[in-house]
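User: Structure with sulfopyruvate, tokens only please.
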Amino acid sequence: MKKTTRLKQLIRSEEIEFLMEAHNGLSGKIAENCGFKGIWASGLTISASLGVRDNNEASWTQVLDVLEFMSDATSVPILLDGDTGYGNFNNARRLVKKLEQRSIAGVCIEDKLFPKTNSFIKSEMQPLANIDEFCGKIKAMKDSQTDEDFVVVARVEAFIAGWGLEESLQRAEAYRQAGADAILIHSKRSDVTEIDAFMKEWAFRHPIVIVPTKYYKTPVDKFEELGVSMVIWANHNLRSSIVAMQQTSKQIFEQKSLIQVEENLATLDDVFHLQNADELKEAEKKYLPAN
Ligand code: SPV
Ligand code: MG
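Assistant:
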């Protein structure tokens, strides 16, 4: 089945589904090997892993290069965090074309202005996109996809920017009518109250995606009860790798020895396995001269 069709099915399925964050081919493979049915290519973690900020400092073609590795390394669908679409409707529809060429299953765009700022930094000062302009962007993206199952998720940042329920609902409904396949409603509260209120008013109109980074203490049962379609664990592979790398670097630096760290690391065989080294061994037998 096509990756696009798979993602569309996940979003529309009766059951709650989960996407795991990845930011390169390796983390994508790890997420897939653990059983995740789809991957969130996070703007925050791709930028952080490149050593830059989540302010569109990495160009969109640099992000595409990362995605190409991620897509080649995995077989589950990838939903790209496409920020604001990297410009106006014209930039966003060209993005769709380039994502389709790389077998990326869908893209999420948020209703802020380019260059964006991460939702958890100075969020109340962040200007939102004009609703009509954003709807035009969604329509242009949907009109330009050549695969009918390519997914466009529209992300509402109204709660993040300090607007209330009414503004969030108005935007979500406008984006639904513009043709978005799902709405991502984001909240920076440490409890689920905004999402709860939104879901009750929304009343199962269209699939809803959430990112519970800040309200992580809320059990998944609650999201199910509210009728959430998809949950994104948005940055946890990157954050866990930061802790692991900091500990390892520190230990090796201080001890000038590998003795203490060795047993806590993935083995080299683990690395070769993740790189699918065995396949190359087999191919060499088949394609290289025998002597
Ligand atoms: C990301 O993972 O880059 C996101 C989610 O957009 S958040 O960081 O919560 O804004
Ligand atoms: Mg992001």
